[in-house]
Design a protein that fits this description.
Helices cover 49% and strands 8% of the residues. With 454 residues, it is α/β, with parallel strands linked by helices. 36% of the residues are buried.
Length: 454
């Protein structure tokens, strides 16, 4: 355009550029500017906002990663949705991040959105579709002009429902780029969309709606877009995936003992402690046989299959301003922690989950019963004084787990009857954080119940 022109000034207007394959593109970036304003860059797998995101440590999670990649590359033909789920702290986002990076390298990542309950722009669905559309344009540039046309035709489309945005900005543009009558040899390979932390999107209805929209339209696209959903097993999300229409096209992976998390956690801890011994400023003061194998075994056991525990321990121990040996002693209660809060990250996670429940008094009563029953096989004299107490508590537990404290399921839930991370919750309760949950009296009651067997 304007080949050989010199000292030329052009202001405003719409231009038509003829390009090699003999179709014309009307260039008007006003539509895309509206798209850019609705994007959440922090939701990208490689965003600056999420710099150094959690990812799988080398030689860990190999079985889970292989199962997901096998689905991405082959078995998507029978199920175009995968649900990866597990309790809080199980390492779901690290797996999602690792898969995103692998698929990006292979050129089969269509887009990603990493929800975060505490990050504006990533804590609701208002910027979800625009963010995915932008990434799809980067992967398939021929979509651009059709998306521009849709935004020019309806300047308010980005304020419409997710369903309307999906149709106007993804379904129709892709249908124009890839006609349905194209031969199999012309069809592009399947591309993956990752939505991580669905449970962190504000509103249960919004979470269900996201599933409904993607299920409703992905199957009718002219190219194969497949969807990896990663979340905690919240009851309303489980209910959505249990719907026959969705379950028929969904394969699931539960982060349970099937994938041997203990072995992976040991590999992670061994590697990280070796790093500490070789790079820490106080490495000259660290014995060569530190930490002893029994310490690693204890940390693996206390992790209960949850990578967040092992990761938090490592972050605390490797502090460059402290001696690692003493910090590990603090973890095991062999030294006074002073003002330190070794498990602040875990405390924050559980505090956030507990803050979401609707009946703190009853939750604390039932939670105390669970902890005491699982750890001692008995309950407090207060409960034993009433012969019907166990029965009432178990009944309340059943009701609550189904309804009132659906968020607590995310802490204790494990597939196939596997271990829960009750040790971590017990430590959380015993180390005074539950005192601010609900009323003071309820918090003190829960702590006293937990402390009776400390």
């Amino acid at each position: 355009m304007f080949s050989g022109a010199q000292n030329t000034v052009v202001a405003g207007g719409t231009f038509t550029e003829t390009i090699a394959n003999n179709y014309s593109v009307k260039r008007n970036d006003e539509g895309l500017k509206k798209l850019y304003k609705k994007i959440a860059p922090g939701a990208f797998h490689n965003s600056g906002e999420r710099f150094d995101p959690p990812k799988c440590h080398p030689d860990t999670r190999l079985a889970v990663l292989k199962a997901i990649m096998d689905w991405v590359e082959t078995t998507y033909m029978t199920c175009f949705i995968m649900w990866l789920y597990g309790p809080a702290g199980a390492g779901k986002s690290a797996i999602a991040q690792t898969i995103a990076e692998q698929c990006h390298t292979l050129g089969i990542l269509a887009g990603s959105f990493f929800f975060s309950r505490t990050a504006p722009g990533r804590n609701d669905s208002s910027q979800l579709m625009a963010t995915l559309v932008y990434q799809l344009i980067m992967v398939e540039p021929r979509m651009r002009r059709h998306v521009e046309e849709a935004l020019q035709h309806d300047p308010m489309v980005l304020d419409r429902s997710l369903e309307a945005q999906m149709i106007a900005l993804i379904v129709k543009p892709l249908s124009k780029v890839f006609p349905k009558d194209q031969g199999p040899e012309q069809a592009p390979k399947a591309r993956l969309i990752i939505i991580d932390g669905l449970d962190e999107c504000q509103g249960h209805e919004a979470q269900r709606y996201i599933l409904k929209v993607f299920h409703g339209f992905l199957k009718d696209l002219p190219i194969q877009l497949i969807l990896l959903i990663v979340s905690r097993p919240e009851q309303h999300i489980r209910d959505s995936f249990n719907l026959q229409a969705i379950s028929a096209v969904t394969t699931t992976i539960a982060l349970d003992d099937t994938y041997e998390p203990d072995s992976d956690i040991k590999i992670f801890l061994d590697s990280k402690f070796d790093d500490i011994k070789s790079t820490h400023p106080y490495k000259s003061q660290i014995p060569s046989d530190w930490p002893p194998p029994t310490a690693i075994q204890q940390l693996v056991k206390k992790s209960s299959g949850q990578f967040i525990y092992a990761s938090t321990v490592v972050k605390y121990v490797k502090s460059s301003r402290h001696r690692p040996t003493r910090r590990l002693d603090i973890i095991f209660g062999l030294s006074s922690r002073g003002r330190d809060i070794p498990f602040a990250e875990i405390d924050n996670l559980y505090t956030l989950i507990f803050d979401l429940v609707e009946d703190p008094e009853e939750v604390l009563r039932v939670l105390s019963f669970i902890i005491l029953s699982l750890t001692t096989g008995s309950v407090s004299p207060e409960v034993r004084s009433d012969p019907q107490a166990d029965l009432r508590l178990l009944y309340n537990l059943a009701c609550i787990l189904v309804g009132i404290i659906r968020h607590i399921i995310s802490i204790f839930y494990k597939e196939n009857g596997c271990r829960s991370n009750v040790v971590q919750v017990l430590d959380f309760a015993r180390l005074s954080r539950l005192g601010s949950f609900g009323s003071r009296s309820a918090g003190e009651k829960a702590k006293s119940l937990c402390q009776c067997h400390a």
